[in-house]
Amino acid sequence: ENASRAVLFCHGAAFTARTWQITGVLDKLASPSSHAVPVRAIAINLPGYAGSEALHARALSSVFLRDFAKAVDAPKDVAVVSASMGGSYALPFVLDPKSGFRVAGYVTVAGAVQTPAPRGALSSSSAVPCLNIFGDEDRRVKEDPQVYSKTFPAAHQTVVFKNAPHPAYLRDSDAAHDFSCLVEAFVHGGGALKRGGASAPPSCGPHSLEIGAKW
């Protein structure tokens, strides 16, 4: 309750907020660590999922996350994690310079990219770090990273999970662990944590993280 930062999680079309609990990422962010600043992890059941009310107009999806964050009194400094369809709710929020929130970073697992950006969005996203996670069996891995590199030009990294499907974090327990590790490291600064003569950025299984959220 005393957290000054929040991480908002938007699930994919075949899943619910509980999926994030299964991966272990929510517990990882909630557990005490060496990081001094507490983080409030908020997993959302998107409209029409797990008994939540569906949106009456598709256009409302572009402001849903902003309105939700305000309704739950989320801290003004946030990071966002989305998977697949969840990106259609997350990306407009991340790119909106007038949301009333400051987005410190964006993690997407094959998140939707075909979302109209608000006016001024590209300039507002230019400093937002973006970690893009894919499974190598996902056909979108060949095209979508290029879109994200243009949308988030200042700091962008693509991590590919081997032998993993579209929801890469659900390949197996190792993938879930590595995903949770990457999100935690990214949220707490990622490569920016490399201080005091440390020779390498954080590693999560076979994956090295080179970027992190900028709070």
Key attributes of the depicted protein:
alpha/beta, two-stranded antiparallel ribbon, Rossmann fold, six-stranded parallel sheet, 20% strand, 215 residues, 7 helices
At the fold tier of CATH, the topology name is Rossmann fold
Mean pLDDT: 87
Instruction: Describe the sheet with the most strands.
Output: 6 strands, parallel
Number of domains: 1
Share of helix, binned: 25-40%
SS field, number of helical segments: 7
Subcellular location: Cytoplasm
Main location: cytoplasm
Keywords: Cytoplasm
Family: Belongs to the AB hydrolase superfamily. ABHD14 family.
Give structural notes.
It comes from Rhizochromulina marina. This is AB hydrolase-1 domain-containing protein. Belongs to the AB hydrolase superfamily. ABHD14 family. One of its GO terms (cellular component) is cytoplasm. Residues 7-184 form the AB hydrolase-1 domain. Residues 192-199 have low confidence and may be disordered. A six-stranded parallel β-sheet has the order 2-1-3-4-5-6, sandwiched between helices. The protein has a two-stranded antiparallel ribbon with strand order 7-8. It has 215 residues and is α/β, with parallel strands linked by helices. It contains seven helices and eight strands, in the order E-H-H-E-H-E-H-E-H-E-H-E-H-E-E. Helix 4 (87-95) links the parallel strand 3 and strand 4. The longest helix has 15 residues, at 173-187. Helix 3 crosses helix 4 (87-95). The protein has helices spanning 18-23, 25-30, 61-71, 87-95, 121-125, 144-151, 173-187; strands at residues 5-10, 39-44, 77-83, 102-109, 130-135, 156-161, 203-204, 207-208. It is 28% helix and 20% strand. The protein has one domain: Alpha/Beta hydrolase fold, catalytic domain (Rossmann fold), CATH 3.40.50. The protein starts with a strand and ends in a 7-residue tail after the last strand.
